């Protein structure tokens, strides 16, 4: 929110743990919170790393990951209509400043990653927040192209 780098989703991708994404706080919003990362093309995802907002233990205690391939995101303007594949629920250590790695055992092929914070993951604060997301992936080769 606003002009600073903090609060906006782009802060998750800037390689700077001092900036952070934060669910809306100007207009309070209840859980669930989520964001979607567009990888630009289908990739094979092996794991996702999340780093908490530094020195702040009031955030979420876990999350679910969902993935969606390019072909399953038919109406690009409406992510609610996409065919999301649940990759599982994971706990999040709100006291750890270093990256936390989550292995996606099915190695999904996807373009979009949705990180979802349901009410069951609510921490002591009302908001979800992170400083970084990193995706460990490999390029998917389609031999039919």
Automatic annotation (TrEMBL):
Domain F5/8 type C: 1-138
UniProt-listed Pfam families: F5_F8_type_C
Name of this protein: F5_F8_type_C
Gene3D superfamilies named in the record: Galactose-binding domain-like
Organism field: uncultured Arthrobacter sp
């Amino acid at each position: 929110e606003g002009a600073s780098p903090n609060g906006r989703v782009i802060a998750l991708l800037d390689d700077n743990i001092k900036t952070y994404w934060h669910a809306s706080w100007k207009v309070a919003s209840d859980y669930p919170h989520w964001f979607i990362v567009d990888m630009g093309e289908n990739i094979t995802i092996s794991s996702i790393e999340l780093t908490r907002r530094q020195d702040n233990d009031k955030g979420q205690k876990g999350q679910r990951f969902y993935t969606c391939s390019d072909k399953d995101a038919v109406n690009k303007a409406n992510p609610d209509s996409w065919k999301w594949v649940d990759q599982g629920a994971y706990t999040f250590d709100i006291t750890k400043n270093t990256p936390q790695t989550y292995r996606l055992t099915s190695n999904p092929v996807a373009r979009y990653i949705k990180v979802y914070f349901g009410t069951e993951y609510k921490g002591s604060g009302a908001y979800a927040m992170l400083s970084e997301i990193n995706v460990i992936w490999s390029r998917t080769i389609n031999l039919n192209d």
